[in-house]
Each structure stands twice: as structure tokens, then as C-alpha cells.
């Protein structure tokens, strides 16, 4: 089957999915949990085969780590599936109900986007994560995994297919394996509604440059922590250390520390705590004078280190911190450490980022941590979905209008008139605690 | 000033706009109303100059009609501005509030997108319509109008600028005049967040093909009216006639009529009513046999006539109607005429369009008619905004997270735990009737 045929079949399936109930979609997730649980040995065996092949090909250690699917990763997949199943149905929610004129009722209802194309690099667990988000939100999907995870992907995909059998329309998902397939997938405008790439910055940029289909993803994560004039010393140390060191090669780690000049006396303690964790510091002139470190250049303000390196700048005001973040940041996640409510309010308002934080680590920018069950990724674009994207980001909406033979001619003649009166929304599920 | 400089200045202004209150933005709209009202003679004089020039250049009649800005169009602009002012502030609305862990509170708040680039053809009133939507939603904007409306645009733009003086940041808007400027504008990725083109299909397609900035617009409007087996005869006639003839060269006019075979006896009455209004019919074989008309080819099902022509097809079932609409339509607006609630429910669920209607004219697909005050256009893409797009479509959101020194390390060690408990949303303005 060609990619075009698979995309056409997925499109047809997406129309069938519009009338599959939330209960049925949850049942698929439950089955998938069960299948993953009972086929773990088969999964691990396939993954071992991939790993052995990768080792003979001398793949890098980080790549091998991402490729590995072990007991712990499987457990976290199963937990993710359970919490996803417990989330309310994202489809069919009424978000607007309005009488346009007596007897003419407008509603806006959430519905699936349609067909999602997912392209991911080495991590095979991404196949289940994103696939399950698509199922929950009623989308059909085409998957293309990394070549190095071929065997693992085949097993995981067969379990996905099996889970949907009889409950979802045929061809609700398809697996692609060759590099040429990616090029084909990127040309399926009109059939594929959204592309979600998961991988390195260069990979995502390549995808964005080679398709006219909308792409949801983020290119850079240059996050800031800003220690304000009125910061609490202990909070400044704790939060900065976590934001920089809790994980290194991740998009929500802090890459630049800004410090208000009045908070500069806190800087030596922060620097010591970071250095104890093995972080190399690069500072502006004033920073170097205060704590003795390498000099930073303008290039550093634009750099996502993804490593144990942090650039540090002393600023004269909250305004200067905001200007620096809006200019050099990547509009991902930025934090202010402050005891001053007015400073926090201004920071929240004026920083142009998907996540704006106060007194907590930038590392919280994540779909699981936000309670979305899982995420397809974090979006730094402003349209459609911004920040961590869960099932809501895989939905769009439609307007329904019910009348009694209403015509525009009558409205224009004055025979009927507009009322534009909002009506109460029908009662809906409320997001609940786990 | 180059387009790049204007875009950079607009970007800076967009950050300043983040802290301009809704009251101040409404005051700008009020001033604009007043300025348009008191400068009407200046506006009409400029428009006469454009019209005279256009006549010497032998522009087509429809183009001249769109170019003309008369008393009636001005009045409708003023009414639009007043109703836009009365709408609640689309900025700063809290749409999610959740405790992630005790003391760690997540909020999702609406905020402006940033910088909007608007490119429109002959209609000068679009300048005020879209400009005012940008002001209401706190976006800065770059405008490029049609060459033929040069003088009118200059006057309208100077009034827009004047209205914002002292209330909005400098450079919150700019006017571009040359064709080369459009090419430059389309290259301002990173500075311009969204392009909104208004004009012909070919024009919008050209814009989409020549920029990497997201484009909001629609390419086609192939709308259907479907007369179901249980349709009421009078409703079928009234609604079909309005949907086809209330206006012709508009995207929300019906282009194809589908009729359930059990409702075929209604077709002659519908056909007569349409023919009385001068509509030419093109039908499938069964239609031709029943009412005697030109034969339609498959090409007709894909054609947006924008004229007094309607293609007609008799279908065997609701499913066939839905399949036809999803396959040949443009996912704009489609209507079912039925007395059967279950048929309507299925049609609402299964038709993959921005607007799905029952017993009313497809011509209702419009931002004014939906009570949005105005619209920047109607989107047939599925991402971000779908259907008529008003101020909400010019907003995005940001997540704010407030903690008390929360770190991810503590969460992972189990020292703190996630609760993911939704909190009541703060009270907000409710959309009110005019």
C-alpha cells in the first residue's frame, strides 16, 4: 500500500471515527493497556533485537538510551494510558450556545481534527503515547518511527491495531517504515490535516521546511529564570538548581539566569549550588566580577546548551529582564523568583511565552505534570495550541445551527431580528483529580 | 521605513500592547467611531478620487462596487465598531485553573497573538473592519490594501493611527502601499505571527504558497443544502431559495442541492422557485428526468459557481449525502432540511465542515450573524480557528504557574505529590445580547 493510499484510507476512517463514542475509544485504550501488559516479553525481545543491531552499528549512547524500552518505561506507558482513559471525553464538548434569533440556535462543539501524521525518531514509546492520544481524541493517524526501532515499532503497532479491531473503523492507523515514505507523507495535503514531528531541532525544522501541511512542534527551548529584586534567597537557589540540573538535554531546562542588580548579593550562593552540581557558568561583565566565571557573548543569550552550562546576566530592572526574555528567548517557559505580587503580575502579563512561572522550576512545563495525561509535544508556535499539547490540541470544533426555516432575507427585511443571547451550556464532565 | 523596520516596530508595540487595558482598547474604538463620523466628507472625497481613477482605467463593475465606500457602508462600519466595543474583552480570560500540587497553581489565560499582517484587495472598508478587530484583541498590525483604493486607504489609515495616539504604543499599525511590500511582508517570519489575506481564491492561494508565516483564510466555499426524506416542503423551498439566491458571489451561498430520493416529489416545487429567481439548474440523471435540466458532470460537484447556477443530485440515503459532502465539499457550511431529530443528529456528527446546519440558510455563516461583532474572514482550515473568525481567533493563550519554590526533583522523589485538582474559574464577563 502506498502512503497516498494509506492516507486516503485514514481519511475515510476519520469520518467513521466521528460517530465512535467516547466509551468505545476508552475501551480501545483499556485493551491496549492489557495487550501491552500481556505481550511485554514479545516487546522486550523485539527491543533487544533493535538494541543489538544498534550496538553493532555503533550508535551513540544517548541514542541507545532513547531506543531502549525497559520495564520502567513500559510501566510509565501503562500509567499514562490509565490516566488518559480517566480524562473526560475531549470530543463533543459544547463551548458556546447562543440564540441568534428566536428558534435559531448556534452551538460550538469540539470534534477531532481528522488525520494526524506522526514522525518520530528513535524513541519507540512515542508510538504508543501519541497513538493513544489520537485514539482518545478520535483522530486517525499515520506513524513513521525511527529506522533503528524497526522491530519494536512493528510489535507495538500490531498491538495498537489489535486494540482497535472491531471498535474503530478499519485503517484508523498505519505504520510507515522507509525514509521515502516521509517525503510522500509530507505531500498528502488535503488528506493529512496535521503533522507532528518528534525529535531534534534540526529534524523538526527539516519537516517544517518540506510540507504545506500544518506542523505542530517546537524548534527551541531557551528558558529563563529571573531572580527579582525581592526574591527569597532559599527559593532562588532551590528553583534555579532544579530548573538547570534536574535534567539537562530537555527543552524546559533553564539556559539563562537573569538577576536583578538588587538581588546580586544572592548570586554567589546560587552559583555555588550550581557549581556543586557540575554546572559551568558564563556571565556578563558584572557577573564575572562578582563570581569569577567565563565571559558570555551575545551568542550565549541565543544558545540552547542542552548541557551543564548556564549563562548569567545581571539586569537593572524588571523591564530589562522582560525585554531580554522576549528578545532572546524562544517563547517556551520563563520564570520569575519574587515575593512581590505586582512584579509577578507584570512579568505574567508582559513575557510573551507559552509558560510564565513564579517561584517554581521551568521543568514543570510538561503535559503529564499539567495533568493532561500525556502530551504530543510542547508547542512554541502561537496558533492553535501553545505549550504542552494533550488531547485538546488534537481537537478542533464545528458550529452547528438549528433553525425553523430561517432565511437571511427575512433577517435583512426586518421580518425577524437578531437577539444574540447566550444560553447556559449543557452540563459537562469536569476534569477530575486522579 | 522598510517593511522589515515596520514589522520590527510592530513587534515591539505588540509587547507594549500586552499591558494596555481593555478599557483603553475600547476607548480607541470609540474615538475611531467619532473620527470616521466627523471625517466622512474627507473619506468620501478620497473614495471619489479612487473611483474616478478606476473608471478611467476601465475596472470591472463588481470591482468598482467593492471599491465604493458610501454612506450605507460607512454606517454599517460604525454599527460594527459599536457592537465590537460592547463585546467582552477577549484578552485575559481564564479558561483553566488547576492545582497541580498544594501551593502550585496553573492557569490558562487568553492573550493577543502579537503582530498580524493583513493583505486585502479592493474593499477599503476591510481596513477598518480588520484593524478594529486587531485593536479589540490587543494585536499590532500591518496593512496592505489594494492599489485602486490608495487614497481612501490613506485617509482611513490616518484616522486609525489618530484614534490610537497616546492610548496604544507607537507603531501599533502601519500601512504598506507597493506590491513589493507584500513580498517583503511574507518574509517577516519571526516578526509577523499571522497573515490574513482577504480577496479572491487565487489571491489567497498565492499568499499561502509564498510564505512560511501561518495564513488564516479560506480558499473555497462549496456549500450544500440537503433535502432529507422527512423534510418539510415549505422549509425546503424557502431555505434553498435563500441559500442560493440571497446573494450570489459569496462563499456561503449553496452551490449543490442534494435531495433524498423519498423527497424527490418536493424537487419540482423547489426547482420552480429557483427558476423564478433566475437560477440555472444542472442535474444528475434522475434530476434531469424529473425536472428537465442540463446534465451535470462530476466537475460540477467540485465547482464554486459564485453565480445563479445550482447543481442538483438525488441521493439514495443520508449516508450518501454525507459522503458526497465530505468528498466534494470544501468543509465550509452544509445544511440538512429535515423534521427527523435522529437524521439531524447524524448529519451534525458526520459532516466534516466548519458549519453544519439544520433547517436554515447556509448564508448565516458570517461573523456578524453569529454575534461576533465582525469577522476577519471565514476559516476552512481546521487548526486554530474554524468558521467565521472574530476577536477570539486573534487571540492565543499562555499558561501561568505560581508556586512556593516547587521543584520537579521533589515531585519525583515523592516529597511532594500531584493532585491535579480543578479549581473554579474566576467570574468573567458573559457575552451579552445587544
Q: What would you call the structural class of chain A?
A: alpha/beta
Tell me the CATH topology of the largest domain in chain A: Aldehyde Dehydrogenase, Chain A, domain 1
Evaluate the radius of gyration of chain A.
25 Å
Beta-strand share of residues of chain A: 15-25%
Judging from the principal axes of the Cα atoms, what is the shape of chain A? globular
CATH fourth-tier homologous superfamily of the largest domain in chain A: Aldehyde Dehydrogenase, Chain A, domain 1
Whole-number average pLDDT of chain A?
A: 93
- The second-level CATH architecture of the largest domain in chain A is 3-Layer(aba) Sandwich
Q: Major sheet of chain A: order of its strands?
A: 10-9-11-8-7-12-13
Count of the domains of chain A: 2
Please report the first level of CATH classification, the CATH class of the largest domain in chain A.
Alpha Beta
In DSSP terms (H or I, runs of 4 or more residues), the helix count of chain A works out at 17
Summarize the main sheet of chain A.
7 strands, parallel
- What are the segments of chain A in which pLDDT stays under 50 over at least 5 consecutive residues? 429-434
Helical content band of chain A: 40-55%
Assembly state (oligomeric): homodimer
List the chains of the largest interface with their residue counts: A-B, 82 and 82 residues
Distance between the termini of chain A: 42 Å
Strand elements of chain A, count: 17
